[in-house]
Amino acid sequence: MIKKWIVLFLLGITILANAQNNKVQGQWLLTKARVKGKVVQPYQTVEFRKDGKLMAMGMEMATWKFDANKKQIVLKSKRNKNFNGGMKIVSLSAEQMVLKKGADTYTYSRVEPDKIKQDNEKSGLVGLWSLSGTEYPCAFLKLDLPQDFALVRVAFGETDRASGNWIFSPKDQTIIFVGFSELLRGKVKLTDLKKDEFSLQLADRTLQAKRVKPAPIERLTFKEDDFPEEPDEQSQARLPWKDFDGMVQFLSKVKAVHYSVGQLLPKLNVLAYPTKHLAKVQADVQKPSVRFTNLSVSEGNTSQYSEKVLNEMSSDEFHFFPLEDFWQYSVVGNEKLTVPAGTFDCTVVEAVDGDKKFKLWMINDKPGIYAKIIREETDPFGKVNYSAEELEQIDYLK
User: Fold this and answer.
1) Last residue of a domain, one of 78, 110, 142
2) Which domain covers residue 72, as residue numbers?
3) Residues 6 or more apart from 205 whose CB is under 8 A from it?
4) Which of 85, 207, 356, 376 allows an S-S link to 200, with CB 3.0 to 4.6 Å?
């Protein structure tokens, strides 16, 4: 009889241990931690896997085991000794778990992937958004299903990228950002939610988000082998800028040329515009000569990056001025192109310079001024450098 009672007791302990073990298994979101008397909200996900591994940030951080006798989770880690030891289970339910180690306590909420996907899908937030208020001239937030997000911020010569997971709560209209972004981390209040815009209330600022509607981006698919080694007479004859003196005469009336510069963010398939291109023009009909001083304008700062000069000694290389002359190019046709500065009749040229590809819209009656320039290059590591310049304004001398 006593043996039977002992067997039943041990069986009960085993069943209870298995039940508690099953409750612990799965993904959890660390929402609050009291460490050394200080309360923080990490909003970091962890997974207690069935195979006994504790995963965080995609890495195995420790092994875990449920100790039924002491009602604690025992961790062992070679990666971080601070993980080692027992964490007492203060409370454990289907939705929440509170653990204690010494005087420190950790509060977790159960992560339910199916519910997250459902709430995110119904939120109306899935897609690409431009953000203002980030201290960068250009910023984009991409929210994907089931729960991935990407944040890309662009300034002149600098691109900052961060990624992670997002969890929308329809109950309190918040988004929890889990990842390595310094800007978007933890629970963020969502306000002014409309079809194509919303606001994010951060502790120190408000970010305005506007939906980015997909727009086709023309990629340059031709290659060097598609062109003859040298231009033939027929191609040269089709170029619109044939008269050096006529170019100087026209540009003598121009003070400056303004271009917007779009930089491709390949993973988002969108153009960012962190900078503008300002070309100051000086033309002397008497010499004759033309000087283009090229400036980059970003966030109110202006810096010179090049200077192009054309005179009688170099007048045989003026066909693409102020760009360098191309040896390998093809005139592909004529096009009436509309850009911010207006609508222009253009000759369209495709060209290559080594690994660099170009597509040019040369304004027929404005020699030296392009309506649009596309540049594309893939470096040896597979990184794509793509930009599109569009004519914004021509300043004429009074």
Assistant:
1) 110
2) 23-110
3) 133
4) 207
